[in-house]
Amino acid sequence: MSKTLFEKIWDSHLVLEEENGPSLLYIDRHLIHEVTSPQAFEGLRLNNRKVRRPDLTIATEDHNVPTSDRSLPIVDQVSSIQIKTLEKNCKNFGIQLFGINNPNQGIVHVIGPQLGITLPGSTIVCGDSHTSTQGAFGALAFGIGTSEVEHVLATQTIWMEKFKPFEIRVEGKRKNPFAVTAKDIILSIIKRIGTAGGAGTVIEYRGETISELSMEQRMTICNMSIEAGARAGLIAPDEKTFEYLRGKKYTPKNYEELVDEWRENLKTDSNAKFDKSFTLDAKNLAPQVSWGTNPAMVSDVTEKIPFPEEFAKDLSQQKGVEKALQYMDLKPGIPITDIYIDRVFIGSCTNARLEDLIAASKVVKGKKVSSKVRAMVVPGSQIVKKQAEDLGIDKIFIDANFEWRESGCSMCLGMNPDILGPGERCASTSNRNFEGRQGVGGRTHLVSPVMAAAAAIKGHFVDIREMDLN
Amino acid sequence: MKGNVIKYEQDNIDTDVILPGTYLKIHDYAELATHAMEGLDPDFHSKVKEGDFIVAGRNFGCGSSREHAPIALTHSGIKAVLALSFARIFYRNAVDGAFLLPIEIDEDAYKDISNGDELEINVATNEINNHTKNKKYPMKPFSEIIGKIIAAGGLFKFKP
Question: Residue A20 pLDDT more than 90?
């Protein structure tokens, strides 16, 4: 029987399946962090349970760690306790931890692939919705809640209802791939299919444009699958995937044998059936900027802020747009390029890998951040930070008056001291523009790293395609 | 199960407004509850009563996997959220920890139910009675696994 890639991975991890009932799925890798794990460990203790496979469980501290000088103690006592709790739990239960001062520390979805923990064909869970990022390697990777974290810690399995496979094809050669990035592709997809368009599904991204993307760009695409309502995104592994993982810290010893097997098996059969299908033509895609309070409220940078009446065919959506524009303090009809910003955040599991920083640095090089803007770069991991510093990229940003910070989730979710003040407007390379996401009253515009960098220089959004890049 | 309605007539009520990120450091459930819905409705904590239901539009609970979101709601007294649809992680979190019932309703029920209405939810018959308006609405039955987890009282009590 023909199968999709998702069905192949699912079937090969089934421990138990009931007709029309729940399935018990084996989990190959469990990543944990300080925010969604404390209650899970507490549950284990209360019930006198152990971690079943500490060797398959990896921890890091990313969500609430400060991104300033790490030789100093953590000022926020509540954060400090949460971090110490994870350290204690990892020690007590025998789990490998990449803590705040470890050279492998970083955003959990960035370090998984970087360390070779993420492998094609595997099942990966983490108490974090952006676990979908790792689907870029052909792994079935999805976010879970804390009760499920406890269940996986205790049993290395999880009860699931089977997802439905959703095919999204991205076709067509982009005219300017430097300016029209993976971020623009995924924002454009979410705009078209909506924030619940992928509910109950695993999206498999396919097509010419996806094949052309680098691994880091593919991660940006899979990362935001959750913003379209899908639990996971998936891209069939190819030579780029195998090359990326070759020789990493935890890449298995029999890697080349595994690669031969993956090359053979990890693809959707030619006549396999998807439940749904959608195609995006990337040929004429423009850089995208979000103007609202969910990631489907997005326009081309060349467009104007829409009028709520344009959404009149769905009254609920029209009201949502009205409310969003009010929160964002934006008037319909003004050009996107007339939006002035106060802050720039280049970071997050969506866009804080080396390629993102290199691309943004090309925009910034030899220029200065607008005097009205405070801009920061937060590398996705300590490895990314070091790689960038080895290339001298930190200097380009620092010379342009960007802050160059330590790795972590930072201003993506407003848990650590990096937050927006009320009313502050930010060009952000993160994944969510929800009300208050980056700080109470903060206003988030989602963009690609090059668009964020350009906005930092000019003080307002610009069409990166028209910017003089020397 | 009987309670009164707090209605938010909007779609995409995300986990960041249900429980803003800055409070994810808090481990005390009673304290978490004081911040429930703070991003959307700062008065929520003062008006919510034990046994209340939230009624909302499409894609309730979208965003983060934080179980703190249903925890904050349940410790505020919310027993069920009735919505046109749910984001899947929130949905599972709600039942896994036996925090609250995520109930899918149809457009007619959504439009008809008003803020303050007294509802009675009967999971056995998949029926919602609006005592204030003297009306009945269907609810979407739970899938087999969700129904079993709810009946067992959470993920750790569930046996297939």
Answer: no
Flag whether pLDDT at B160 surpasses 90.
Answer: no
The tokens describing B98, both together, are 């036996």
Place of tokens 């410790």: B75
Question: How do beta strands A157-160 and A23-26 pair?
Answer: antiparallel
Q: Which two tokens stand for residue A420?
A: 């927006």
Instruction: Say whether A237 sits in a helix, a strand or coil.
Output: coil
Place of tokens 């960041």: B16
CB contact at 8 A, A166 and A201? yes
Window A:157-186, CB contacts with B under 8 Å: 159, 161
Q: Taking CA atoms, what residue in A is nearest to B93?
A: A145
Tell me, yes or no, if B28 comes closer than 8 A to chain A by beta carbon: no
Is A414 touching B (CB cutoff 8 A)?
yes
Partner B, chain A 69-128, Cβ-Cβ below 8 Å: 76, 78-79, 81-82, 127-128
Full-model pTM: 0.97
Distance in angstroms (rounded) separating the CA atoms of residues A423 and B137: 42
Q: pLDDT tens digit string along A181-234? A: 999 999 999 999 999 999 999 999 999 999 999 999 999 999 999 999 999 999
Q: Inform me whether the pLDDT recorded for B129 exceeds 80.
A: yes
Q: How many CB pairs under 8 A join A and B?
A: 149
Tokens for B38, please give them: 């703070």
Q: Phi first, then psi: give them for residue A450, nearest 5 degrees.
A: -70, -35
Helices (H), A59-137: 77-93, 108-114
User: Tell me, what's the ipTM?
Assistant: 0.96
A432–B67 C-beta distance less than 8 A: no
Q: For residue A249, what are the contacts with CB-CB under 8 A and spacing of at least 6?
A: A104, A115, A116
Which of B10, B19, B24 to mutate against chain A (most A CBs within 10 Å)?
B24
